[in-house]
Design goal:
The complex is a heterotrimer. Chain A is about 80% helix and about 0% strand. Chain A is an all-alpha fold. The termini of chain A are far apart. By secondary structure, chain B is an all-alpha fold. In chain B, about 65% of the residues lie in helices and about 0% in strands. Chain B has a two-stranded antiparallel sheet. Chain B is globular, with a radius of gyration of 25 Å. Chain B starts with a helix and ends in a 5-residue tail after the last helix. Chain C has a single domain, classed as Four Helix Bundle (Hemerythrin (Met), subunit A), CATH 1.20.120. Helices cover about 80% and strands about 0% of the residues of chain C. Chain C has six helices and no strands. In chain C, helix 1 runs parallel beside helix 6, helix 3 packs antiparallel against helix 6 and helix 5 packs antiparallel against helix 6. Chain C is elongated, with a radius of gyration of 19 Å. The relative contact order of chain C is 0.18. The mean pLDDT of chain C is about 95. Classes of the chains: A mainly alpha, B mainly alpha, C mainly alpha. Chains in contact: A-B, A-C, B-C. Chains A and C meet through helix 1, helix 2 and helix 3 of A and helix 1, helix 3 and helix 6 of C.
């Protein structure tokens, strides 16, 4: 029975729950916009990283170079698209 | 009868009525011909259900050439209308419809399938593989493209053509200002086709990463494969943006959402932003495989290794990332501040640098080489100065402050045709000529080919150089006429003459095909150009399984090494080859997508829902399907090889 | 078909490896799909026209339930894949079924959430903000819905055909999809809901 609940997955789950609870602080506590955004960004990206490496086994095979490159590329272009859009359409309009 | 009124064209003309008749007659002729010659079975078995990358490539090619004709007719009509001031050949509405369909057809339904044709035909052969990673998905990619193209192409005779430009900006593209279904066609047909493109991106990347012949490391891949790999990476990350943009546009038009509306918080300019986040990478999707073709052709016909392999690769990797950093240069004048414009100006000018590196590498490849001017090489030689000219006008446009003068004038029109025609179109024609023997087992005629290249170049210069001047003089784009007092008349007439010369050039391509089918010798070798890469190490035309024995490679010029240095490519005995089965599912599923698209365009909700269920039914079937392909026996391989005169 | 017994079943044939890599690339595309929705959301979320703002309609309780359900389902499917690698077919199916039920629960809450919004005057046609909010949540929800059907088909296939290289491959790829949907939810949870309720 115990073999069905490997430590890595259980700890990953627990850590994700913890990160979620920390993120909730921005709702339950008073804080500046900057502080709140920082907490959200940090917890979200860490939790995404946990999903990627622990649950999705991204680094497990001979293709891990391609997989990680793919994810980083996607991430960079996603961020460029989001921030470039905000810059052109909202902040500098 | 009222139900059928929605399919009427809101702004008909004699030409449109004539087209309706022509389309109807053509469809009847095709059905009659297939029936009379009893070719339905052949069509279904060999083409409609194929999953063979070579066949799929040929279908993309035929589609691209047909669409080239359609887009070209649009172009001739525009040039004719503008050839004289206050001309009455086309009224404003028709002119708008024609420049819209010209743009969409040429970019989405001509250039894209042309590069997909080249990729499909060449990549598996160039890397020494038997097919792509996902042959069934490949077929679906083609048929989705085809159905998207068919849907778009009937717009002008059923319901009305889109008329808001190939960029379809809101609020013009919204329901209030574009009341016909034309813009629905735009949103939905391109969406369907785009899904196919995304699938190709995934397919080709996986193929190139995982299915290369033993010994072919990434840095030993031929340059066409490298350039296509990078282009497909761009496809994977750019097309989803278009998917969302088109979906949001569709929802605004069909479901009353407020993304790009003028009130209730909508932001019309957001459409332009999202469109170009896709749109700029799109032009690099088009040009990189073109550059790849040039790399192959130039090194083959200079009898020299491509100069600067590493910098060629590095420049394309840089271009792939930077192509996502420049998009706002398409709307410098839209109202954002100087900070934004400055940033995008700098990134835009910077992206010219890696492109310049490539031009120098091609020149250095030719330097001290043994140049043979074949048709493909002629296109490449013409490309270099013509494209460079277009590129430098791009740097002019990149300066945002200066762009306030050039934006949306004919100067801009001249620039982008100046990079696309010598850049993409010439490359595709060079590729077509170069790979024709690989596809069909005979050569296209050299003399006609060279006449075509010269006519297209001279026609291109006459058509587009005047536009730089009239643009600087103030002639706006997308304007159906101009008054005599502007003085734009004489140069526009020159453009028209240039367009006619180009048209003659394109007709010559058709003639070349006919002439070569009729007269060209079928007795050619596997390697008629004395080339350097693996695709020339198998027969012309290529057998179903590509290579009887999979090759082993030692350098980036695998065939050249085999010919000149005695490296043995094919070691070992024949073994049974496992190939995927044909399937009718991609074709039929795409027809359902056509019906879905058509239903949404005309707001026919019941057929739309039924079609969606149909799509999911096919996906469900695919999930449960167990198809183990078929085997080609050793005996059959031996027979085929002997027949093709390549017996071991 | 050559099976490499030194690798987990889902990677054990050439086609299996291609399928998994191909699906990762697809997820790269999906990152961009959702990134575009987010870019649009961040641009339009203040543009509420005559309609409500996020702070006015978001409620923490259903959002917490949705988050907990989806996160747990991501955990259970991870356990399912682990069971699969141990060859424990029954356990794997059980974990997969629990995953799908949790996903169904998530959807139930989300449907209830949408109904509430519409009742409160925040429909998809109300304003730019509501349009993009419901489209983003709806796109994610549609992906979950598709996943429920796909997951069900896989459970049926594993039950009928057992753990073969093909069924293992499909199960693993489905798990990648399911985990990805949780990753997207993390960002929805953080940057749409929590940020909107700060």
């Amino acid at each position: 029975m115990k073999e069905l609940f490997p430590a890595k997955q259980v700890l990953g789950f627990g850590f994700s729950l913890l990160l979620t609870v920390i993120a909730l602080a921005v709702y339950f506590l008073d804080m500046s916009f900057a502080a709140g955004m920082t907490i959200l960004l940090v917890t979200a990206f860490i939790q995404a990283g946990v999903q990627l490496t622990v649950f999705m086994h991204a680094g497990e095979t001979e293709d891990k170079g391609s997989i990680y490159t793919n994810v980083y590329y996607g991430l960079i272009i996603a961020l460029v698209t989001i921030f470039g859009t905000l810059l052109a359409m909202v902040w500098d309009m | 009868m009222e139900f059928f009124e929605r399919f009427a064209v809101p702004h008909p003309s004699i030409a449109i009525y004539a087209s309706m008749v022509a389309i109807g007659l053509t469809m009847v002729a095709i059905v009659a011909g297939l029936t009379y010659f009893k070719k339905w079975g052949y069509l279904w078995r060999e083409w409609l259900t194929t999953v063979d990358h070579k066949r799929i490539g040929i279908m993309y090619l035929i589609s691209a050439l047909i669409m080239l004709f359609r887009g070209g007719v649009d172009a001739i009509m525009m040039r004719a209308q503008l050839s004289a001031p206050e001309n009455t050949l086309l009224d404003a509405q028709h002119y708008n419809e024609i420049f819209t369909t010209h743009g969409v057809v040429m970019i989405i339904f001509m250039a894209m399938p042309f590069i997909f044709a080249m990729m499909n035909i060449v990549i598996p052969l160039q890397i020494g593989a038997r097919d792509v990673a996902f042959p069934r998905l490949n077929a679906l990619s083609f048929w989705l493209f085809f159905m998207g193209a068919m849907l778009f192409n009937i717009s002008f005779v059923v319901g009305g053509s889109p008329d808001a430009g190939w960029t379809s900006y809101f609020p013009l593209a919204g329901n209030e200002l574009s009341t016909s279904v034309g813009t629905n066609y735009y949103m939905i047909a391109i969406q369907i086709s785009g899904i196919g493109s995304l699938m190709t991106g995934i397919n080709m990347i996986t193929t190139i990463l995982k299915m290369r012949a033993p010994g072919m490391t990434l840095m030993k891949m031929p340059m066409f494969t490298w350039s296509s790999f990078i282009a497909n990476v761009i496809i994977v990350f750019a097309f989803p943006v278009l998917t969302i943009a088109l979906a949001l546009g569709t929802m605004d038009r069909l479901f009353g959402t407020q993304f790009f509306t003028i009130d209730n918080g909508g932001m019309d300019m957001l459409w332009a932003n999202l469109f170009w986040v896709w749109g700029h990478p799109e032009v690099y999707i088009l040009i990189l495989p073109a550059f790849g073709i040039y790399s192959e052709v130039i090194s083959t016909f200079s009898r020299k290794n491509l100069y600067g392999y590493k910098s060629m690769v590095a420049s394309m990797v840089i271009i792939s990332l930077m192509s996502f950093l420049v998009w706002a240069h398409h709307f410098f004048t839209m109202g954002q501040g100087a900070l934004t414009n400055s940033i995008f100006s700098i990134t835009t000018m910077a992206i010219a640098v890696p492109t310049g590196v490539k031009i120098f590498n091609w020149l250095l490849t030719m330097y001290k080489g043994k140049i043979e001017i074949t048709t493909p090489m002629l296109y490449s030689l013409l490309f270099i100065p013509l494209f460079t000219l277009g590129g430098v006008t791009g740097v002019m446009l990149a300066m945002s402050a200066a762009d306030y003068q050039y934006h949306n004038t004919m100067f801009l029109v001249a620039h982008f045709h100046n990079v696309i025609i010598p850049g993409v179109v010439f490359a595709m024609l060079a590729g077509l000529t170069y790979y024709w023997p690989k596809m069909f087992g005979f050569m296209l005629n050299e003399r006609i080919g060279k006449w075509t290249a010269w006519l297209l170049s001279i026609g291109f210069l006459l058509a587009f150089m005047p536009m730089y001047i009239t643009g600087l003089d103030g002639q706006a784009r997308r304007m159906y006429t101009y008054s005599e007092s502007t003085g734009f008349g004489p140069l526009n007439m020159v453009s028209f003459v240039g367009a006619i010369i180009m048209a003659i050039g394109f007709v010559l391509i058709v003639y070349n095909v006919y002439y070569s089918v009729r007269y060209a010798s079928r007795d050619i070798s596997a390697d008629p150009w004395d080339a350097r890469t693996l695709e020339w190490a198998t027969h012309n035309p290529v057998p179903e399984y590509n290579f009887a024995v999979l090759p082993e490679v030692k350098s980036s010029e695998a065939l050249w090494d085999a010919k000149k240095k005695g490296h043995v490519l094919f070691k070992g005995e024949y073994e049974e080859i496992h190939m995927p089965n044909n399937s009718g599912a991609p074709f039929i599923m795409s027809i359902i997508f056509f019906v879905l698209g058509f239903s949404l365009i005309f707001s026919l909700w019941i057929p739309a829902i039924i079609s969606i269920i149909g799509v999911f039914a096919f996906m469900t079937h695919r999930s449960f399907e167990q198809d183990h392909g078929h085997h080609i026996s050793v005996k059959e391989i031996e027979e085929t090889e002997t027949k093709m005169r390549g017996a071991k | 078909m050559k099976i490499d017994h030194s690798l987990p079943l889902e990677y054990s044939t050439e086609q299996n490896k291609l399928n998994i890599l191909g699906f990762w690339i697809f997820l790269g595309a999906e990152i961009m799909l959702f990134a575009t929705l987010f870019a649009t959301y961040f641009t339009l979320y203040n543009r509420t026209g005559n309609g409500p703002t996020g702070a006015e309609i978001f409620e923490i309780t259903p959002v917490l339930f949705e988050t907990f359900l989806l996160l747990t389902s991501s955990f259970t499917i991870g356990l399912g894949i682990h069971a699969m690698r141990l060859g424990r077919q029954k356990a794997m199916i059980s974990f997969f079924v629990i995953t799908l039920l949790l996903g169904l629960g998530f959807l139930g809450f989300e449907v209830f959430e949408f109904f509430t919004y519409v009742h409160e005057g925040a429909g998809i046609q109300t304003s730019a903000f509501t349009s993009i909010l419901l489209t983003t949540l709806g796109t994610h929800g549609a992906h979950v819905t598709l996943g429920l059907f796909w997951g069900l088909f896989i459970v049926l296939q594993v039950r009928k055909r057992g753990l073969t290289p093909q069924t293992a491959n499909k199960s693993f790829i489905f798990s990648l999809y399911w985990h990805f949907l949780d990753v997207v939810w993390i960002f929805i949870f953080s940057f749409i809901y929590l940020k909107g309720m700060m």
